[in-house]
C-alpha cells in the first residue's frame, strides 16, 4: 500500500476513535495523582468522538471533506488540556492534507510535522514528557523515513515503534511519572489513536457508538435502570435516526414533527441543531416516522430495535432527556432575552463551577453564566462558546477555575468572532472568586485582566479528597482510601480522616502574611461536621479570620482558600 485515499482515511480515523473509546478507562488510570479526577482518556475520547461523528456522516468522502470534519469536529468538541492538544494535532494534520487526492508517505510525514507544530504553538509553556513529546518523536521519525520508505504500513510501523520508545522515556522526563511508575497518559492516548488508525488501514472495521456525549453542563441523576417487562411495552420499536435537513430546520417544523410523532408513539426526543435533527421515538410504525422525516430532508444512522424481543432495553437514556430539556430551556431564555431588546452591556462574566453553593457564590458576586463543570467533567470549547452566546455583553471574562480547562477557554476565545473574550487563568475556585471580586468597572478590560491575575497570586488553595490507589507522590506514601490534601504545587498532607487532612493542610498553607481562611464544604460533608472543623480550626489558628461556606462541590470534601 503506497497511498491513502479519502475513503481509507475516513475508515482509519474512525478506527482510531474506536480504539481510543475502547481504552479510555485504562488511559484514565494512568493519571499520576491519586485522586478521582483521572479524565485524560475521557477528555480525549469526547474530543475525538465529536470529530468521528462528523467524519462518519460523510457518505461520499473527499479528502477535503474528511479533513474538515476531523478539524472542525475535534476543535469544537475539545475538552481538557489533553483534548485541546489532540484537537490541535488533528487540525494541523488536516490542514496539510487538504487539497490532496491521495496521501503518500511524504505527505503523511509532512502532515505529522505540521500537526506537531500546530499543537506546540497552542500551548503557552509546552512541557516535555507529555503527549507533545510523543507526537514530536513520531513526526521527526516520519520526516526521517519519508524519503526512504514508500509502503504506508511499513512506514507506520516504524513511526509507531519510535512513538512507543519515546512514550516509555516519559517517566525520565517528568519525575512525577517516574515516582508513580506510569507513562504519560496523554502520550499513551495518542499512541492508542495512531495504532487504531493503522488497524483501520489494514481493513479492521471499527465498532463505534456515535451517540453524542452529554454536555458538561448537564447533571444526570442515577434514575431507575431496571429492565422493561414485555407486557408493559405499549410501543414495540425503539426508532432512531438523523434528519439531514434540506433547508434550515425551523421552530414550526420542529413542532410539526413532534406533534406527528407523538400521535404514533411515545418516549419522544427531537433535538434540532441548524440543519441536523436527531430523533428518538418508540412506535409501532417505524416506517411512518421515516416517511414523515423524509419530507424535511435525507435520513442517516437509522436504527430500529424490537423492544418486545429485547425486553431489557431502556425506554430512553436520562441524559438524552436532560440534554433536550437543557437545550430547550437555553433557547427559550435566549429568545426571551432577545425579545426584551436588552441593551448589550460592556462587560460580562462566565465562570466554571461544580456545586450549587459555589455557583450561587459566583452569581452573587456578579457572574452572568455558570458552566457546570470541573474535575471530572471538563466543559468543551463548544460549551464555553455556547455560554458566551448567552451573555449579553461586548467583552466577556471567563474564569476556568481549573488548570485543565484553561486551554479549552483560550481556544473558545480564539474562535469567538462577535464578542471579545478574555481568559482569566484561574486554576482553582478560590482564585476565580478572588479575581471576580476584584473587577473594577472603571478600568479597561486589559487593566482588569492584569489586576485580577495579580490578585490571584495572593490566593493559596488546598483541596481535600481521598486516594483511589496506593502510590507515592512528592515523597509521601499514600494508601488507597487515605484522605489527602492537594495544594497549588503538590501534596500537602496524607491522613486517615477528613478533619486531620484539612487541619494539616491549613497548617502548611497559613503563614505570617495570611489574613483570611475560607472553608468551602462539599456535598458529602454535613453542616454539623463542617461546623466542627471550623471550631477546631479557629482554636488552632487564632491569628487568622476563618469563614465557612457551603460549596456543595463534588469530589472534594473541602476547598480551602488562604489569602
TrEMBL record:
UniProt GO BP: glycerol metabolic process
Alphabetical list of Pfam families matching this protein: Dak2, FakA-like_C, FakA-like_M
Coiled-coil intervals, chain numbering: 309-336
InterPro entries hit by this protein: DegV_domain_contain, DhaL_dom, DhaL_dom_sf, FakA-like_C, FakA-like_M, YloV-like
Classification via SUPFAM superfamilies: DhaL-like (SSF101473)
Keywords: Coiled coil
Keyword Coiled coil: yes
MF terms (GO), sorted A to Z: glycerone kinase activity
Lineage top rank: taxon: Bacteria
Domain DhaL: residue ranges: 7-199
NCBIfam families: YloV (TIGR03599)
Protein name as annotated: DAK2 domain-containing protein
Organism of provenance: Candidatus Caccovicinus merdipullorum
